[in-house]
Design brief:
Elements (H helix, E strand, L loop, with lengths): L1 H25 L11 H12 L2 H14 L2 H9 L2 H4 L3 H15 L1 H32 L3 H18 L2
Helix pairs in contact: 1-7, 2-4, 3-6, 6-7
Length: about 160
């Protein structure tokens, strides 16, 4: 029974890890196709002229407002053209994907919470199994091995 439960926990953990990896990949995809054209170049040039502290705020407001043209121009191009760092671009890109795809963001949070719960509660199974059996797993294995050896000695 314990081996079956351990396999189920491992399977659930592996499944959640796959879901998390896929969602993380989806929420981190670049949006390069929207960062081309004369208008995109002008938007990036404008953002680059803003003081450094205002750039993030400007882009975040565009994300919140759903301004795809501005977001695509700034986040779709190379970061230095807009005066932002690659790290800032990654953070803003993630924020944009979460805003534009709230369902995937919720699924990711749920999958991470489920994985954390499995990690926290997985050990409880072994403890409860030991209570039910009345002995530690190692002792049970020794007794089973001794029983198998004893039965083998009776077989002619």
């Amino acid at each position: 029974m314990l081996a079956n439960l351990a396999k189920r926990f491992d399977s659930a953990t592996a499944g959640l890890n796959r879901v998390i990896e896929g969602l993380e990949r989806d929420l981190s995809q670049p949006i390069e196709s929207r960062g081309v054209g004369a208008m995109a170049g002008e938007i990036r040039a404008y953002v680059k002229t803003l003081p450094e502290g205002q750039r993030m705020g400007f882009i975040q407001k565009a994300i919140e407002a759903g301004d795809e043209r501005t977001v695509g121009a700034v986040l779709g191009g190379v970061p230095y053209l807009s005066g932002i760092t690659p790290e800032m671009q990654n953070i803003l890109l993630r924020l944009h994907h979460e805003k534009s795809n709230p369902r995937a963001a919720k699924q990711l949070r749920a999958a991470k919470a489920g994985l954390e719960m499995l990690g926290e509660r997985g050990g409880l199974i072994f403890k409860e199994m030991e209570k039910a059996v009345g002995a530690k797993q190692a002792k049970v294995q020794q007794l089973r091995a001794a029983k198998a050896a004893a039965e083998k000695s009776f077989v002619v």
